[in-house]
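Contributing: when you submit paired examples, paste them exactly as shown. First protein:
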Amino acid sequence: MARRRRRRRGQGQGAVKRKSDDGAAAKRRQERLINARIYQFFFDALDAAADDLARRKRAVDRVVATSYPEAVVYENYSCSLRQTSRDQNPKFHVMQVIESKGCSFFFARWGRVGEEGKWKIEPKATVDDAIEMFEKMFRVKTRNDWDDKDDFETFPSRYAVFEES
């Protein structure tokens, strides 16, 4: 019985080579292999691009990066706000919660668009204190809660979210 199975599969003694194993079948197998490699390369490139985008979104402000090169933004606590009125240049306000070597900071930079502006880094005892400061400043500047940023409402003479990172 074992012999019969082998013969049916074409692996036993005296098995005849199939015509489908000629050059055309080998070419199709080669094409499938190449297509699989192309798809794998494409999906690897997409994953790398997504990782790069996530890293860029969490980039610390350039002012902080010069002083603290190992600093990272804590989770998603980073945003850039803009305020525009008719009679003056637009203003910006950047806020971030930053971690560096086990320390937590609240960072803010503000000023007129096109200028570096003023900035401050406030050390905090814990990350929760820095988050609390971030959420408080976001509320003061925008009159919106950070937790409800998806349903953001713009108010006159208040900042609006320009870029969330």
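Second protein:
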Amino acid sequence: MNFEHFAKENWQGNLYSFIKEVLDFYEMRSQIEHEGNSENEPHLYLNSMIEENMLTRLVESTGEYTDIESAFNGRVVRNY
């Protein structure tokens, strides 16, 4: 399944549940975590450049975001 098809079938308007589905479906090692007491502003911890590029293409395919960084309002941590 290509990224555009996956986004079309699975995008429900909720970024965080969409990213969780993506991480599970594509068996990625990146993860979403909540920092401290802030339940409203999760951070995305990226495991590799490949996963960052895949996630960017997937969120672009929703038509709502330009890249993964803008989708998470800069709350992206790169662990590579």
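If you have annotations for the second protein, write them as plain sentences, like these:
The chain has a mean pLDDT of 93.
Residues 3-78 form one domain.
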